[in-house]
Amino acid sequence: MSLSPFFHASLPPSLSLPLSPSTCLSLPLPEHVSLSPFLHVSLSLPLPPRVSLSPPSSTCLSLLGVSLSQTVEHGFPHQPSALGYSPSLQLLAIGTRSGAIKLYGAPGVEFMGLHDENAVVTRVHFLPFQLELVTLLDDNSLHMWTLRAHKGVSELLEIGRFTLTGPPGAPPSVTRVTSVLAHSSGELLLLGTEGGHVFVVEVPGFRELEERNISLDQVANSVPEDYIGRRNLEHVETLQENPVDPNQVVIGYGRGLMVVWDLEKHQAVQHIPATQQLESTWWTEDGGHILSSHSDGSYCRWTVGGQSSKDEEEKSDIPYGHFPCKAISKIVQLPTEEGPPFLLFSGGMPRASYGDRHCISVIHGKTHVALDFTSRIIDYFVIRDGPLHTGDPGALVVLVEEELVVIDLQTEGWPVIQTPYLVPLHSSAITCSHHVSAIPLKLWERLLAAGQLQITHYSPKPWPITGGQNLGQDPPQRDLLLTGHEDGTVRFWDASGVCLYPMYKLSTAGVFHTDADPNDNMNQCSEGEWPPFRKVGCFDPYSDDPRLGVQKIHLCKYSGYLTVAGTAGQILVLELNDEAAEQTVEAKIVDLLQGQEGFRWKGHTRLDVREEPVLFPPGFQPFALVQCQPPAVVTALTLHSEWKMVAFGTSHGFGLYDYQQKNSVLVKCTLNPSDQLAMEGPLSRVKSIKKSLRQSFRRIRRSRVSANTKHSSNAELAEMELAPVQRKIEARSSEDSFTGLVRTLYFADTFLSDSSHNSASLWAGTNGGSVFAYMIRMPSVEHRADEPITAHPAKEIQLMHRAPVVAIVVLDGHGSPLPEPLEVAHDLARSPDMQASHQLLVVSEEQFKIFTLPKVSAKMKLKLTALDGSRVRRVGVAWFGSSRTADAGESGLVVLTNQGDLNVVSLPSVKMQVQHPCIRREDVSGIASCVFTKHGQGFYLISPSEFERFSLSARNVVEPRSLVEVPANATAASKRRAAPDGASADNGYTLRLSVMEHALLNDEREYRTVRRNVLDDVDEPPHSVMSCPHPAAVCDTTALSYAPIFMCS
C-alpha cells in the first residue's frame, strides 16, 4: 500500500527521523507504507521521556517539518505601541498592543516573538553592544529576549521575565515602572517608578541590586528645602545617561525637578529645579548641557557641572509662539562635524490652531520644517553615520500608528527614503487581492520600469537599517500579489520573498469624474506659512468616492492584459504600455436585467466617465470599459486573453464581453423575481428586516420538521442515509436572498455538445446552486477582428440543495485541471488530454461533485466532512511539487472553510486528504480575504495592515532565515552569552550550573529540580545535549523549556 501525497493517518517496523548528526528517533511504521514528499504531513507520535521539543517560531504542526506552516507576516504591524533601535546591531524593534515584538534589519532579516501575556508592549530597549533586548509590558512585567544562533540561523527567544516587588504593604505605585534606562555597560537596567524610586537591576539575570537602588527619600533629602517644600516630586518621567561619564545619570521627575546622580558615589551631584511639568530630557553629546522639554510646549537648556544649579535662571524657549501649545513629548539634539547641530522635537504645536496635527520639528541652522505625519507618533530615533555611529545624523526614523517613515537628513529637501518592508498595505483599505505566480521576466521588467517613474520624489539614499545577514536563498520564481483598494487603486507587490516590496501602483480614478483634485500635492506648503508644515507619509484611508473601490482583479501574465472591476458595476480592461498615452475610454452599457419590469434599483448611481481624452502615464492603461446596469458590485470576474474575452457577474446576472471588437457577446439575467434585497445595493441603508426574520423562522421550522422525521423513521435507514462522519445537507429555499448572485465564472475548452468536438465555453455558478454553461463559437483567426463571436446556452445544472457554487473546474482526460490561457503556447504547461473524456468539478459550499462531460451525469461526490457547520469559503487549484524530485508532483484542491480549516482534496478522486486549522473561526474578514497561490501557499489578512503567509507545500516555503552576530566591540561576557547552541562541549553544563545557582537563590524546590536534571545528564556525551537557554532564564523556570531542542542519543 502506498499512501497518496495527501494523507492523514496515524502510522502505528520503523520510520527514522534524524534529529542531529549523532542522534535520531526510530518510530514504528508498516513495511507496506511509503511516504510521498509532495505534501506536508502531520504525525502524532509519542516521544521518549528524555526527548523534549521546543515550540518553534512559526506555527509548524509537524515533527517532520512538513505540515502547515505560517511562515512570515507581510505589511505593517497592527497597533504598534513601542519602538527600539540598536546602533551596534543596526536592528529595529517594534512592540504592539497585542504583545508581539518584531525585529527588522537588512531586507529579509526579520524576527518575531510573542509574549505569553496578552498585554501592551510599552517600552523596547536593546542592551548596548549585545544581542539581548528588554521589553516592558503594561502589566508591569519585564521580559528579556535574545537572538540565539541555532544551526547557523538566529532565533528570537524569550529567556527570562521579571516583575519588581516592593516591601510588604507598599502600594503598587512604588514598583510601577514608568521609565527604563539600559546602561551603556550592558549589565544594568535602571527602572524609574511611579512612586519616584529608581531600582537598579543586573541583567541579563534580572537580579535586583538593592544596595544600589535610589529611593525617593534619598533624593528628597538632597533637594533644597525651598523646592521640596513647594512641590511633590511625583513619578520618574525620564532617565538619561551622561554620554561622557557613564557613572552619572539624570533622573527627571514629573513635576520638573531633575537630579544628576552619581551611581558610583551613590549621591546627587546637581539639582536642576525646573518648574514646568517634565516630558523628556536629552543629554548633549559633550556632556555639558541637558535639554528638557515640558508640557507647555517649551524646552530649556541647562548647564551641567559645578555646584547646585538652584540659582540658575530658567530660560525656556517656546518654538511656536506664546499661545497655549501642546507638550513637547521628546527632544533630541545631535551635533554635526561642520555646521550647527540638529534639533528635533515632537509636539509643541499651538493647541487651538494645530492641536490635531502629529508633528516632528527639525531645525538645522536656518532650516526649520514641521514634518506633518498621517497618524499619531509612537516614537522616533536618529541613525548616525560612522563605524561607531557617532557621526553626522543620517536619517530620521519615525514610527507612527499606521506606518514607518524614514527621512533622509543629508539630502537637500530632506526627502523620504522608500521602505523595503513595513509598507502600509492599508494606505487605502484593502478590498480584494489576486496572486499571480511565475511572472515572465519581460513583464516583470516592464512593471519595474513603470514603477520607477512613480518614485522619483524618494531619496536616492539606500535603506539605512542594515543589521544581520539574510541567509535565505534567492526566490526560485517571480511572484506578484495584487491588492485592490477602496480608493480605486491596484497595487502590485513583489511577493517572491520575505519582503513584500511595492513595485507599481495603478489608479483607476482618472477614468471617472471624482471630487479629487489631480493637482493636489501633499508635499507642498505655502510660502511663509507658520508653522512650516510638510506632509509626509502615504497613509490616506479616506476615499473620495466609495464607488471607486476595486472588488475583483484578473491579470494575464503572458499577454499583459489586466481587468479590474469595481463597486459600481464598472469593469476596466487595461493593457501594459511603456509610453504615456492620451486617449478616451468609452463605456459599453450592459443591461443585466434585460428590460425586466417591476424592478427599481435603490443603490448608488454609476460613475460618470470622462468624455475628454485623459493622459495616462506609462504602465497599465485602460482601453475598454463595461458598465453594468444596475451598477451593483461586481462579484465574479475572469479573463481569457487568448480568446480576448472578459466575463463578469453581479447579483443580477452575468455577461461576456469581447474586448478586441469591443462588443457585448452575452447577457444573462439570474435575478429571482422575489429577491428585492438584490435591488438595494451594498451602499443602501435600507434592509428588509421582515424578510430576514421570515427566513430565520423558516429555517427553524424546517430543522424541526426534519428532526421529527428523522426520529420517526427507521434507525437503520437513517444510518444508511447519513454517514457517521458527514453532516446532512439542509436544502435551501429558492426564495432566499441573493440566489441569483454570480459567485464564480470559468472559461474552458472542453466537450459540451458531443465527445468528439471540443469548443470554447463559459461556465457560471450562482448563489442559488445553479450552473450555466454556454458554448462560444469563435471565428477563424484571420476573421477574428471582423466576424462577431456568438454564445449559445448548452447546459444548465441545478444542485439539489441549492448550495452556493464556489468554484468550477474542468478536468482533462488525465484528471488534471485545464491549463491557463496561453500557458501551453509559452511551453509552460503540457497540452491537455483531449482524447479521453473530460470531467466537470462543481464545488459548492456543501460538497464537491464530479460530473461527466458532455452528458453532465453525476459520477462521484464528497460531502464536506464536518459536524460543526463547515462551509466552503475559498477554493484554489495548487500544484504540490516533490521536495526530492524536481519534476514530480500532483495537483490538488486547497479548500478553506468558514471554520478557518485548510483542507486538501485530491484530484480527480475528490478524497479529503489533509486538514489543518489555519485561521480562527471568529476571524471572518481573515477568511474572506484569503487568496491561494498555484504552488500550495496562501495569504490572508490578520489585521487591516498585515498579510499572514502560509504554506502547505513541502517545496515552496518562504520564510526568513537570518543570522545576527555579536558586534565587534562587544564585551567578552556578551560574546560568551551569545555563543551558539552546542558551540563548546561543556557549554550546556556551564549554563545549567548558572541556572542552578540562581534557582538556589530564589526557590529551593526549583534548585532541587534543576540539580536532579543536571546530575542525571552528567554522564552523557557532550554532543547529546544542546545548550540550555541563557542563564537569565532562571528568573522564570518556565523559560527553561524554550531551548531549541534537547536530544538524546
Automatic annotation (TrEMBL):
WD repeat locations: 476-494
GO biological process, one term: motile cilium assembly
GO cellular component terms given for this protein: cortical actin cytoskeleton; plasma membrane
Record-level Gene Ontology MF annotations: GTPase activator activity; myosin II binding
UniProt keyword annotation of Nucleotide-binding present: no
A Pfam family recorded for this sequence: LLGL
Listed name of the protein: LLGL scribble cell polarity complex component 2
Gene: llgl2
